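Obj.: predict assembly geometry.
Materials: sequence records (below).
Method: joint structure prediction, all chains together.
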Amino acid sequence: MPRFSALLESLSGADGAEIHLASDPDLEGAAALDQAGKGQLSFLEKDNALSKALSSTGASALLLPCNAELQQQATQLGIAWVALKDPRLGFAEALEQLYPEAKPAAGIHPTAVVDPSAQIGAGVHIGPRVVVGADVVIGADSTLHPGAVLYADVQLGAGCTIHANAVLHPGSRLGQGCVVNSNAVVGSEGFGFVPTASGWRKMPQTGQVVLEDLVEVGCGSTIDRPSVGETRIGAGTKIDNLVQVGHGVVTGKGCALASQVGIAGGARLGNGVILAGQVGVANRAVVGDRAIASSKSGIHGEIAAGEVVSGYPAIPNRLWLRCSAAFNKLPEMARTVRRLNEEKAGQ
Amino acid sequence: MPRFSALLESLSGADGAEIHLASDPDLEGAAALDQAGKGQLSFLEKDNALSKALSSTGASALLLPCNAELQQQATQLGIAWVALKDPRLGFAEALEQLYPEAKPAAGIHPTAVVDPSAQIGAGVHIGPRVVVGADVVIGADSTLHPGAVLYADVQLGAGCTIHANAVLHPGSRLGQGCVVNSNAVVGSEGFGFVPTASGWRKMPQTGQVVLEDLVEVGCGSTIDRPSVGETRIGAGTKIDNLVQVGHGVVTGKGCALASQVGIAGGARLGNGVILAGQVGVANRAVVGDRAIASSKSGIHGEIAAGEVVSGYPAIPNRLWLRCSAAFNKLPEMARTVRRLNEEKAGQ
Amino acid sequence: MPRFSALLESLSGADGAEIHLASDPDLEGAAALDQAGKGQLSFLEKDNALSKALSSTGASALLLPCNAELQQQATQLGIAWVALKDPRLGFAEALEQLYPEAKPAAGIHPTAVVDPSAQIGAGVHIGPRVVVGADVVIGADSTLHPGAVLYADVQLGAGCTIHANAVLHPGSRLGQGCVVNSNAVVGSEGFGFVPTASGWRKMPQTGQVVLEDLVEVGCGSTIDRPSVGETRIGAGTKIDNLVQVGHGVVTGKGCALASQVGIAGGARLGNGVILAGQVGVANRAVVGDRAIASSKSGIHGEIAAGEVVSGYPAIPNRLWLRCSAAFNKLPEMARTVRRLNEEKAGQ
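Observations (raw structure tokens):
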């Protein structure tokens, strides 16, 4: 339960920032602005939808943007505050202080089944009922939660976290600090079948999946290995729940893939690509650096770097907004065209 | 194997209903109208697509709607029947009688790993390989199927069922009679990252997921906890398979979310909302009581109570139907407009 | 490490084919044309996007199509090659030779929990922490990977593979050679609820799921059982990851369902149907033999045999392509119509 002033010491950007400490409350936790009560910290960003909630918040301390009006309002309400360039980042740092995560103790639970050939690093925690196959390598300080299954020949860098009942298939290579959430599957067989006269014949999937450092894979998401070569997720890429990444996909660094995104085999994403929820990317499509696709869009072919696209097939967002608006007026337009056409015929 | 007349005693709405018992068959099971054979019960609703199947059904007994024509037809076919206001409800009740569910015996399987600090209610069944973490509370008569993982600090009300390999993360709170189906994940970390110069930084997700009484979560579905506060699913809400519920979402009571629905962070659903398959709801969207979204629609902003919407972005269903019809005639309309324009230019 | 000439003996279609063996390399593996190095085999199909990569490939041996130009080019590059009618099929066969799959040894791991009433066939491998319920029947030479859960009354044909943490619910019937990938769920309760004054009431799901011979189910996919009768997947049908198959769905033989497809309750697919990624099929829709739906399309009603459809609601692909092109020009068309209308009014 740190005092607000003590907490500030751990926030990047608080050093030298404008600070108002009418009081210096003991902080017992944090909450959203409209739900925060006494002893709680909250935050506000510029143009945040919750700005109106400031007048009625019960928060005792606030991380504010560099905005005189909001600061004045907080001061009048008697709330302690600090002005930060990035209050959201500050809030993330504050939550880490206020709710420190308990790291499970090192050791292997007696119900875990670990192949004798596996190499387990120092400080590793292997929980109940985990299965670790032959020739697996687990980097130091990694945590394997209950029921996780690592097939043979999986390698994890240091500081990885594998959540409950997640599955890593043979050949999977994880860098440092990767997180695989519950029930996710990494390195499973790609969906490759050759049509023959007697039905679909399996194309053996002999490749592997590589997750570079700091990649996170959401719950229930699936990342397939290819027939040959690699499926590769670039460093720092974050993948939400129930996302499908097909065989042979390569993403750049720092991408963000929202829930239920599907990326078909062989597609390529540049660095910093953002795909919103339920977006689909077709086979062998190419998405340039920092391109953004809004939710439910469907990408074929090639998207240039920095583009923002929407719709299916995906087109530039600004065009799509105008097309969608026109779509909603189609019945009216059809009527006008019909009338003009009839009048023309009647001339 | 009850007789039809005996079965009727357990059906709500059968008391005082019109009944035809040319015979009183022993019932050995139930089936759809077009597949039912001797000794089997079936049912029919008004305007049901299977109505035509009545003449050729092999069923020995029927739950019919209050419809003279169908009743006469059944009588002529020599089929015993009862007329109910809600034959589908009657069929649900009948199936419960004909196929009573075996409740697993109370007790903890020796291969389960249960933390000594967990509180296990009376009559609880804990199956093989279940893992129950520290400080977990399990209400009376709950059933945990094989491989389920309950992290620390999970609380279940009475009569809950957790199916095989499902995972409940810390802080999850389930009311009475909740069902979490196989491989579903409740209470996992929300997808919250702050963009920084050195990449995505995790926003700690310190909140929790609350499932009120009688909530059901489908196979493989994922319900995330928020950075602060709650994700809350209202009492009696039913969630199908592979649904994503983002961090901080709040739903009202009695909602139904069909398969592959995705609800982004902070969205709010009223009571009795129905979302059909593959619907997407954007961040912080608000859906009013009893609103309905047809399959694949994408909801932004606000949907009024009772509205039926379709399309992406979602618009009123009736308008969307007309717009979609016009969309299919766009090439023709484009031709007409081009011709009118050329004729105009040529005048 | 077979020589290329030895490998050819196992390829269907290589017998009597045109072969060029400037050298007869020892093959150490296989790779895509643009990534293959010394000692590696690769392949090329007619009109393949990688054709341009031929001139710079490092591959030592190639499976080529019957195309004189490509063959001449390979010869000039000093690469050994064989000309096949179906190089992709040949590559699948070659990968099997080059990367033979290790079959786990028969036996039951001591940490598996197998009900004494289960019948286990000869040569079956049951891995660590597998749970096999009462009255289960497992066909000869099947493999159950770690953490798989088979509820009571599940039956598997010979040669099935159940991957890690997959779940088979009571009544599931699998033919020979089926594959259920990691974290998939087969035979779970269909999403059936009857609306009543006091909320949703469960319709008991007493039916079962049948997977005919050689069906494959992707990671995280879910196949529900119906209230009565069967959900049935036709022989040789391949299902990708995160696919939902609703209660009572029936598919023909040899279908291919790509990732994130959702098929609602009671829909029927003919033989050889192909559904691309994120396609949705509505309740009780009917899709004819060999019909194809492109990604993200939404199918209602009935699709004729052999049709190719797109869009939502799905229409013939060729029409949809023209409608989509016109959609992208809607703002322009709207302007023209407005001008024509104003000019008309001004006449």
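Conclusions so far: Chain A has a mean pLDDT of 95.
To do: check interface contacts against the pulldown list.
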